[in-house]
Specification:
alpha+beta
Length: 84
Amino acid sequence: MAKRRASQAPLGLTSNGLVVVNVLALLSERELKALRQALPSGLGNDWFVGAAVGVRAANQLLERMDDAAAEGAARVTSQRKRRP
């Protein structure tokens, strides 16, 4: 049997627009093992355990992600050498 892997992604977006955060870090090893065994094997080997965040928290999260993306883009473009 293939080993089931828990996703390490910090967040996800559902098809109905909810933002979910990964809660696996909040579970004990015993809880993780029980959850892994309880999941139906027909669903695949990769799984994500998330909790939906409210609209306000989702908006704050998206604002921070936008800021982080802008900062990342600025760093990448500033590190490129300019051609004469």
